[in-house]
Design a protein that fits this description.
The structure is a single chain. The chain is of the alpha/beta class and 199 residues long. It folds into two domains: 125 residues, Rossmann fold (3-Layer(aba) Sandwich), CATH 3.40.50; 50 residues, 3-Layer(aba) Sandwich (Rossmann fold), CATH 3.40.50.2300. It has eight helices and nine strands.
Length: 199
């Protein structure tokens, strides 16, 4: 039985390209499309796809926030984050519930094979380019900048579970600049689409 895929991207051109690619496969079926994170959550509940190809930067609700909600509400669904900003989200991929991060600039060449690999093997988290993590130092200051309250609180709660982090937060770019000047954080987790001043 073919596996079903939901395509989520605010670009009609990208959605069409991805759909065309999957329509050439006999073992994969596109069950629907969504144009933003909120639409993705609604369509996932209705269509129950096996896998979601999810953009990161979208209106209403970004891909990272949508993935974290979907991972809690539909834990069986598998998620590929298909994005222009692969390096920016690799470090948070496991926290937000993404199974695979793929780079849009690399094109569609790897997408079908990675979808099949994921559906066949169900890996926990994969990245095209493994990240070299810096050792954690006690007392590190982290600034979380995100305008979507639920996702910001989710990230903050994840960090609070790790001892030694001093976490502050901001909901827009201007507030982030003020907090950064005041706190001098060691690390800033910065959303791209923010009101007032973008990431």
């Amino acid at each position: 039985m073919p596996k079903t895929i939901l395509i989520v991207d605010d670009s009609e051109v990208v959605r069409h390209a991805v759909r065309t690619l999957f329509e050439q496969q006999t073992d994969l079926v596109v069950c629907g499309e969504a144009i933003d994170g909120m639409d993705a959550i609604e369509k996932t509940e209705k269509l129950k796809p096996d896998l979601i190809v999810l953009d990161l930067v979208m209106p209403k609700l970004n891909g990272a926030a949508a993935a974290s909600v979907l991972r809690r509400t539909v834990p069986s669904v598998q998620i590929i984050l298909f994005t222009m900003y692969e390096d920016a989200v690799d470090a948070l991929a496991s926290a937000i519930g993404v199974d695979v991060v793929l780079s849009k600039p690399d094109g569609l060449s790897n997408l079908v094979q990675r979808v099949r690999d994921l559906l066949d093997s169900r890996p926990t988290v994969e990245h095209d380019h493994p990240i070299q993590h810096s050792p954690h130092r006690a007392g590190q200051k982290v600034l979380v900048v995100e305008d979507f309250d639920r996702f910001r609180q989710f990230v903050v709660s994840m960090l609070h579970e790790k001892p030694g982090f001093q976490v502050t937060q901001a909901s827009d770019g201007l507030e982030a600049v003020r907090r950064a000047e005041e706190q001098r954080p060691d690390l800033v987790l910065l959303d791209i689409g923010l009101p007032g001043l973008t990431g």
